[in-house]
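User: Please predict the structure of the protein below. I'd like the answer in structure-token form so I can feed it into my own downstream comparison script.

Assistant: Understood. Taking the following sequence of 370 residues as input:
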Amino acid sequence: MKILYAVLILGGMGIAFGLLLTWVSKVFAVPVNPTRDAVREALPGANCGGCGYPGCDGCADAIAAGKAPVSACPVGGAEVAAKIGKVMGVSVDTQERRVAHVICQGGTDRCRVKFDYKGIMDCNAAAIIQDGYKACKYACLGLGNCERVCNFNAIHIDQAKKIAVVDEDKCQSCGQCVSACPRGVLEMRVVNQPVDMRCRNPVMGVAVSQLCSAGCIGCERCMKSCKFGAITMVNHLPVIDDSKCRHCMVCAEVCPTGAMCAEWDKRLVAEIDPNACIGCGACKRTCQFGAIVGDLKQVHKINDACTGCGACAEKCPKKCITMKVRDKARDPKAAVKEAPPAKPVITPEMQAKIDAAKAAKAAREAAETK
């Protein structure tokens, strides 16, 4: 009998507590936001903080509230932005993926080392001591601050050269490494950028060369060689305007120190379809590198001076020029030189007029001296 009472009492308590919990859950229920939940579901769940909010939950709250754009998540990229755009009912502009770039080539094999650093393996600590152990105060110290904050194993330190190296395939564009670098060596740039400036030292000439063999000396050869006005000098350093750059890579070709880098294996070359070319000469007139030969109404050809800028392909009215990855290096010496203008033929009558003019001038000068 006692057991029955105990069961009844426990059962009654269970029912009472159940009813109490049900009442509490309804009274203190948090309103459900299906839009916010759908946005959170679309986010990758990396919780990296690259969006500027406290994890994916914070990012979802901001997007649903209209405080952040649908493309706020750098890790998800265009694909996630498109999903969130559908949830929010807004259009999404296509954005090129950006990854971290190391704006420095000053490893210990190129940048002079002032002293042997034996302190804390932290870039902030090393930078305090005489502006770092490397001679260039803009150089990567290579002590791993960026590597430690990366949640995607996309960046590591080359221990031999003491410089950061980014794996673009693994980089998720969160920007944590950029924030962690005390030297500002890391920067978010468009992925697979064919031409890249990798020096931030604004000092010019020998002063840079004495510090690093790969530093920009501010010679302006890159700017002067650019046929498309895509390079300007700011604080003695070249700045590339991506909207004007045609990836001809001539700037990197003429750079004496290699501070202007290029992905040579991605350099293009034009190819003319001989069966479709009508010899109109539009491509030849457009080419600024002397890379197209051929007479009017004859099939034109591309020589080894082609830079792969693609201007000829855009100008061709028959669309018979295609761009492909070149299989051998460019040869600037193959460029066709413009023939010098022909000297005018002086007839005897013209010579007589010239002689008469000279005599008249001499007479006037003689009269003025008297």
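That's the full token string. Residues 31 and 254 are 64 Å apart (CA to CA).
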